[in-house]
Write a structure and sequence with these properties.
This protein is an alpha+beta fold. It is built from 2 helices and 7 strands.
């Protein structure tokens, strides 16, 4: 316990970890007993750095320049600025999903707070 200047009593010092996730995919699934449920994939998106290593040979430099020109000119080769990494996978039966009382929608962003041995979802 820590004496806080914001309160006149002893407060518990709680470490919290917060991060944002996006609902990437929701699929229908069955558990081992055959009950219907949902598989919910939450991904964390991170910015990619634009650091480009220049090749040593003239041929490799020319190939890299051509590929960069193609990426800029053709939408077939989009430049990816974010990397989506799976962060949390939830496998829930229908009753568990209803008990959670969160209506997940694809592309919805949530702020996740980890504290006191629990997970809190806050819609952004």
């Amino acid at each position: 316990m820590v004496k806080s200047s914001n309160c006149n009593y002893f407060c518990l010092s709680v470490k919290q970890k917060m991060f944002r996730v996006r609902v990437n995919k929701i699929e229908s699934t069955r558990d081992v007993d055959g009950n219907l449920g949902k598989r919910i994939e939450l991904v964390e998106e991170r910015e990619l750095n634009n650091y480009v290593m220049r090749p040593q040979t003239d041929e490799a430099k020319m190939i890299q320049d051509v590929l960069q020109a193609l990426q800029q000119q053709m939408p077939v080769f989009p430049q990816k600025q974010q990397l989506a990494m799976p962060k949390i996978l939830l496998f829930l039966t229908e009753s568990e999903y209803d008990s959670l009382a969160i209506n997940f929608d694809v592309n919805q962003v949530y702020e996740i707070t980890l504290a006191n041995q629990g997970i809190k979802f806050t819609k952004v």
